[in-house]
Amino acid sequence: MSHVERYLHDRRFDAITSSTPLRLTVAARLAFPDGSVSVRTLRLEASRGRLVIERIGNKDFTTLAAIEAMRELCRVPPNPRASICANERAERPAMSSSTVDVKSARALASRTSEALKKRSAAI
User: Fold this and answer.
1) pTM of the predicted model, to two decimals?
2) pLDDT higher than threshold 80 for residue 117
3) What is the phi/psi pair of residue 54, to 5°?
4) Burial class (CB in 10 A: 0-12, 13-18, 19+), 67
């Protein structure tokens, strides 16, 4: 059994509140029980300014409230155009607007080039 598992096994979880200082290993285990976030990740988020860490006696602590605040800062905003109706899809061209813009610019350049060639031949 690791020291974190022993710590969690020996503690009463009802004594842990959102403001209880927790070592980063314990906080990571409690806030992310699937193990998807490690101590290294928490330290990285702290270095980016998204997680508040307290250093006491050369040991790093954080709280579950600080982790929740970090999660708020890390949220990805939803895509405003998640779906479109069938009518909009039919009205839009099949290719992206950047492709249409490139083709339009290329066609304009070609017409301009042809016009300049005709003028040059007449001189």
Assistant:
1) 0.57
2) no
3) -110, 130
4) buried
Q: Which residues is 62 bridged to in the sheet?
A: 22
From residue 87, give the alpha-carbon distance in Å to each of 27, 76, 83, 104.
50, 29, 12, 25
End-to-end CA separation in angstroms for the chain: 92
Q: What letter represents residue 26's amino acid? A: V
Contact 4, 25 (CB under 8 A): yes
**Digit-coded pLDDT (tens) for 93-114:** 566 556 667 778 888 888 888 8
Cβ atoms of residues 60 and 27 within 8 Å: no
Answer whether residue 122 shows pLDDT above 60. Answer: no
Helix (H, G, I), strand (E, B) or coil at 108: helix
